[in-house]
Amino acid sequence: MSQPRILVAPNSYKETFTAPDVAKAMADGVREVGAMPVTMPLSDGGDGLLDVMEVSGALRGGTTNREVAGPLGDPVTVRFGWLDKYTAIIESRLAVGLSLVPLGQRNPWKTSTRGLGELIALAASKAHTVVVGLGGSATMDGGVDMARAWGWRPLDGKGQPTPLGGEGLVSLRTMTRGSGPAVHLRVLADVQNPLLGSGGAAVYGQQKGATPSVVRVLETGLSNLVAVLGNQAMVVAARPGSGAAGGLGFGLQYFGNGQLVSGAEWVLDRLGFEERLRTVAGVLTGEGAFDATSLAGKTPGSVIRRALDASIPVALLAPRASGVHEGCHVETGGGKWDLDDVRSRAVSAVRVLLSLPPR
User: Fold this and answer.
1) How do residues 209-263 score in pLDDT, each as one tens digit?
2) Closest CA to 35 of 322, 279, 301, 286
């Protein structure tokens, strides 16, 4: 009798384990039960996007390193990839991410997205399409500093350039037009927040290092940005995902004419998830914490929904889990997991998926 195949399709366990590391631990558990793992580590466009594309073999054109301005203005060397000769893929957090800012200096009042604009411009010198994954940013400038790298000039009431970072949004009074990169921009969002309002970009401000009072001022600044730019900006700001990455979702659409799509769905389609789903007896997915936001653009939520729609049994492995789809088996609890915990939980989950007796 042939071994049952189990699709192993986790996200990263944020700030703990990469998706490839989690997938390997899950695969070890699958083998321990006597099943065959089919590994597909995933990303929703944020943390680990390039690693996932590289491990899957999707970076047919290899990778390129370039130096750009980091979120604090210091130069950083950033890696981006090539899906083919004319399609570049960028993980924005590698240019503007929290991991580039020391803990005591995290403050979106000062951090800037200019380096991402520089990186996109460099990729656009050779590419026809640039895919930009959002998530994990240290910034909340609405993409204004990114647009400076494309020739846009944000000015205060005296006609002087505004400061870099979220600070500049408050004094912004006019913005002279530049030209976005001459490529098709596809923007992978991992959340559905609009730019403004109680569920907008500012809800992530404290995660980026802002105090509650600074978050309120940043929200005022983002509102001012939209008012200065006018009616079309109001339309873009209201779209789901425009609040992603401190407003980069908005900026890439408005300043770069980018097309915003679900990062999770794009990655699943690009890696051929549906084709693999048809060949397996069950699915394992996971992330560090699963909650209501996981159902609104995060990879494990999409994996579970697609598996259940195809009547394939699916299990979620997450140290913290709430609001999980009905019909999905859940392995959760126990505090902070190590990779051996992931493996052992995978053993338990696969036994349930295959209707095997517990050990």
Assistant:
1) 999 999 999 999 999 999 999 999 999 999 999 999 999 999 999 999 999 999 9
2) 279
